[in-house]
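Practice set, problem 2.
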Amino acid sequence: MESFRLLSSDPANPVLTAKWIFPGWHSPWFLPSVVAVLVAIFLIVTLMRYERRLVPKHVGYFLMVLRLTVLGVLLFVFLQPTRSWVVDRKKTGRIVVAIDLSDSTGTSDKHAAAVEKLRWARALEMIGNKDVDARLDRWLAQLENGSKVRDLQWVDPGETNDPDRRAALERSRQEAVKDLFDELGAMPRREIALRLLEQTSEPLRQRLEEIAHVDVVVFAGNQEGADVDTFTRFVDEPPETLLTGVTDLRRAFPLEALETESVRTLGVVLFSDGRDNGGGDVTVLASRLGLANVPVHSVMLGSVYKPKDVSIPRIDYPERPSKDEKAIVKATLNTPGFTGEELVVVLEREGEPPLRERVVVDDDVESVEFELDTDEVGRDEYTVRAELLEGETRDDNNERSFAVNVVDDRVKVFLLEGEARWEFRFLHSALERDKRAEVEKVVYRQPYMGVLPNTFWPRSLKLPDDPTDLDNSPFADPDVVIVGDVSPRDLPKEGWDLLEQFVSESGGTLVMVAGQRFMPRAYRSSTIDALLPVTNLRPFTANGPTHTGSPTERGFRTRPTPEGAAQEFMKFDRDRDENRRVWDGLPGHLWGLVGDAKPAATVYAYAEKRGERVGLEDERSNALIAHQFYGNGQVVWIGIDSTWRWRYRAGDKYLHRFWGQLVRWAAENKAAARNDSVQLVLPRGDLEVGEDAVVQARWTRRFVERNPNVKTKAQVFVVDDEGNERPFQTIELEPREGRPLVHEGRAVSLPEGRYVVRLEAENAEEAALGELEAPLYVHERRTLELSDLT
């Protein structure tokens, strides 16, 4: 037998000590037994006096010792001796018990199968004891074999032969089980977790405390610590600070805890219904816990069967459609349990008659499309609502709201290419088909037979005489400049100096695409070295078995990092898991240029040979798509010249989406509110409640050189329904580390509503900022929490 005493020593090397235990000491028969032994000893000694007359002296003593030994053995056996090995351990570690208190854990699984409810009842000790356990085992076996509850064998064999008694037993037990199942069907998932942890005869938390210190935390979109009393209170009413509209499994055990804690974490016990909709990549947390050798034990709450419910888990819509563009919104609906029924879906917009679509449900997932009105520029708010059907599990998850900002702008793109290689041809085709893109291009090397007055595309770049005259250069108007495999002879130093000004002063975006002939290894330019987000560029090729086979099987993969997967232009699908599957299925590449990411650069994708596992350092040393801010603008490095390979069995779908999203994402970096000295930029002007609003003032280098002590503020005003403004918050903008021209601040805790942000400056001779302002919208948080209750 092994017992545990939590004293000292290392848990990894417990000290074992032996010990005798005598349970018989505590027996009520102990004293009578001792008296009986003493009487026996007295009789033995008395008997010895008579034996001396019959046997020799030494024989008499031998018989006495033998009799006393037998008595001692009998007494020792009566004491029930037990040899115990005591393991001395010290509580030097901790166990984290994380309980999901998001909105979905407030769901009651009334639809659960009878066999599930019976198992829950036994686990929660709501039914069962040694007298009825055999009967419960028999009921479980019958239910698992497909029997209905009404057909269970309610009376045990041989329990009674009286028909009336049998009928009464059947009736009472059926009613008891029905009441029990009704109670479980109304019990929220989070209450099941509470009962398991605190309210059974052997609560799980107490059993864990015998091993190590236990930290109980509750989480949803945020995390809080909890003791027994607060945990019980939180189950009844979770605090608003938890952000219960979101389930973010990363909050169950933040990575910072692994890096800062002094106490070793022995494991995590996770109570959750399994949904993760926090928007982050939980695999990063899982891999870090694995590397730290911290096991995670998951206790799943809820039924494995889908509830009968209608919800709207997803709405696909264009966030910034152009004026008069055909904009389609697609609503995806979960409809388990309603096959064959008619469902009415409504699109509502304030001040406009609602649009209705009817669909007959023939699957667990249905979709409905509506066309949005884009006749007028501005922001419009919509609501998609599914009318309630009888028997739904919840009636608070049938609608979702969204907003679109109709704009009247176009993206201006300038393409520079050495010759019409495959990458240029498909890129040019993708942008030319984009109605929101204006494309200028220069292809330096083109076949020319002299039949036409000139080449098909322009083949020269007219640069101004003054290399600092950006306003009269080809780079004065574009939002994005894409430089391909251009020779140093065609794009001289003066051109790169203008591109550097285009990025740092004008706030433009430069995209540099790798080329096998020139770009960028044929250059010896400090300007290009400064612009590139990577250093130590080197070829990355696929050799051996990966060089053959179908396009989806050969070549190396372009693997997005978590930071890259969060970027808009890297999303082939709005669903995170589906987006990952698309990237995993894209054809590989046979050649690329990878480099080491600069300290201030962000890696969006790295090169990965199939079958190899890489770590964080490998990602940064094999950067394939990287980004860095440069002055007021930004630079993107793309180390492959074969994105056209993504057309394999997909047509233009992924190629066009990637480049179309890239140029629109880049154009948003150039602020609409600007003058000769500064740009007012809101990286995101449409937020959800709880998100911070980032405000940036991007000064020109000339202005900062003349006004080195400039201080910047941003005033935030609330705009009511009548258009009236009132001050709400003042934000101090501070220079960003590594980007002294960019002053940045955050507006926190903005409630739902419409705002205007205006810029102010102090200690500046040229403080005439004019009316620089930008709109900001904060709307109700969109959550997937109640969209799938499985």
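Problem 2, part (b): a different protein.
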Amino acid sequence: MTQIPETPKQVEQLDLMQRLNAYARGEASWQPDGAKLGPEMRNEYALLHANLIHLVDHMLAPLLDRITAREMETFTMHDRMHGQKVAHLMWHILRQERRETLTPPEIGMMVAAAYLHDVGMALSPSERAARLEPTSDLWDRLEIQDSAKEMLNQLRAQVGNPNAHETVKRRAEQKIAQAEEALLSQDTRERHALPERYREVFKQLNDFHEKDRARVPDIESCLSFDGDSFRAKLIAVCVSHNQDAETLVQRDEHNPAHPRFPSDYPVGRCNADLHMIAAALRLADILDFDRERTPSVLFHYLLPGNLDPQDNRSVLEWGKHLTISNWQIEPDAIVFRGRSKSHILHHAVVQFCAAIAQEIQATRATFGALQEVNTFPFALLSEVKPEIHEEGYHYVPYQFELDDERVYNLLMGGAIYDNPLVAVRELVQNAVDACKLRDSLSEMADTSIIPNTTDRIFIRYEEPMADCPQPKLIVTDTGTGMDALIIDRYFLKVGRSYYNSSEFNQYRIQLRKSNLDFAPVSEFGIGFLSCFLLAGRVEVETAMWESVRGDTYKRTLQIDGPTRLIRLDEQSNQGVRRFKGTRITLYMTRGAIRNSKIVPPNWNQVKNYLIHVCQELPYRLNLEYVADAKTSQEWIDPLPLKVELPSELETIALRIPLNDEEAGLEGEIALLNPYLAKQLEESATTKISVSLLEDDIAGRASNTLLRGGFRIGGVPGLPDTFLFRSVARARLRLKWESRKNRRYISPKLARENPANEQILAEHVVHTWLKYFLEHVEDIPAGQLYYLQFGRRAGVKLETCAWLEEYDALRLYQLAKQGWHFMLQNIRNPVSDDTIEEWESGKGKSLWLGSMRDDLHDALLDLVMPRVTTLQMGTEARFYGSPDFDGKIR
């Protein structure tokens, strides 16, 4: 049993520092044979000892003490005592035999890392102001929601409003301060362990030294031993503490032949085990879990008000540490003991103990596949037990659990996916994202690279053969592929998408700086499940194209149903022609139900579905069909963003361009002239027919909304008419570049429609109706003939606040285009002279129409109350009286 002793107050009292001082005095040796150390080397050890004390006391500790500022109040203490505790724990979690062989540079890097790893959280007033500037990358890095930005802008407008009451201004200032603190807290937590942040801190320290050489030591000298600087590797160690444990076995990005953290890194006449140092930092950091890290006075000072941990994350973070009284390393487990009056804090402790156990297991795994005890330099077992004494409650870890089979049946039973072929779209979608990520990362590394877009994605359909009684569908891509970590952490976790992970977000931040950013189409993490709509067995072959973790194995997963065990095979995958990317094979035994039988889709159905859905992909889809030992090849290229129309309809179409940055929409709307279309259809001299007015042309939907190149449904908000099935065509794409969170608008789960369909409909209505209002004089006669507003989209004209930009005269002039045309084409036509007489305020009342869904009727409903008196005729029709002075009022 090991009881961790009390943390010393001074850096020189640390066991690590005392060990280094013993080397300097010649009282101990780090060499395995116990060889005595010469005077020259002892002087180097003494210099390193003195430099570390100067580094901590005069440079790092003062910076760390600034981290108690309010922007970090939601997190536990990261001050100098946290650094002291981490260095203290580094020594005590090491095995005794490993302590005795610690080299001086290992001690130096461990002590420096303990204090340095969180120093990036300290922000000076100028740094705080700079991070909140509109040009700061904080806004991109955090992907802040539009609503939050809008709220901040409104508050700032209140503060700057000279007519606002002082009380309103003060409240707005308080809310702004709270919002800024929350933003800085999140930004600081995510950014403090980035290489550039450590370099900023080192530059500050160097500037302090230049200004006051007598009092502030030279940072470069403090981070050197025996003539060699270990500053660069120290930064890498500190960066790794905020990353996954797998980072410990990554390859060096500048020299892939070497590990990122070698175990024999030379520093002067000694070596340093960087793998051990980085592991010690992450383990000691997470093990600093007790009330020493949460002084109760500061707890109540920083967190006044509601102290219910159920509603306050700050209380939860601090309270779980205050719950722990002591902990120790026992023969069978690490045990944390304490008392609690809250079941919520009790559960938080249980969860955190599980996180500690997971961290120990993950770190242990990086020291060898066998995970033998003697290869792991730490005296830590993976079991972590909380022993909390309840006060006033009984803790039982009840929680909801998902029934895997039931969830699968809900997903696959038609409640979400009503077409089994959605599986094909999901696989192609994943392939596109993987290829885009690979291409972006490749271009970032080498700007001369021009990505290949033709031979990247292949869809192959094989008819049943002698050795395979069911048809096979194979989707292959040359994208990033997956290594063991990606497979375990994301691919096998239903509902967890890699494209919502911190690892991908870090890539995106780098890509943005090189203007190579892209938004993934995938986001839900459930798409792969749709494969089992078509197949009872799925085979996945995958290998990383260039693994940063040194893992280039080719792995094959054989999956018999989504809730059963998976067989995994691993193969060596070396050489220039090694497998890169992912290949997924569906052994199709499922599909649509026909005549009470389940029938897999045939090749024509798969191909037509792909043509229908994959309309604007950044890569050509290469199609292969295998039957009777023969292979035929086709491909699907992206289509232009233009509405396709038969030549017979081109002359009666009004094309309206659309580029709405706010909504993230661009493309084209084509509106047929309803009157001319009706004439063409009724004409005996033309070949026009109703079939040309249907909603599908050449196998592709003419009314298409695209998201990442995939069709996700029709365009909402288009006008229609009862004369034909479709009078409006549109081909629009959703954009992500102009959106504040740099993501596509989310679709519904089945990807058949956008999630916020009504909002898109409002933007579409705004586009075509604004075009009409601004081109009234150019609108062809008959364009508004029985043209209906499209209330089915949920948009009402009276709710379009933007119409206030136009006066009543402009609205009337547009309504007149339809109203007058209607009056001249009814059973008893109204002459031009009669209409002109009415507009001059004379003559008889005119019928306003009876179909209130018509666009001109809806406009008249807005305008006429300002123009004339409405009258009800004997036949229950509305008429407009010419009782005005010839003016629109």
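Answer key, part (b): The chain is about 40% helix and 15% strand. Residues 39-64 form the longest helix (26 residues).
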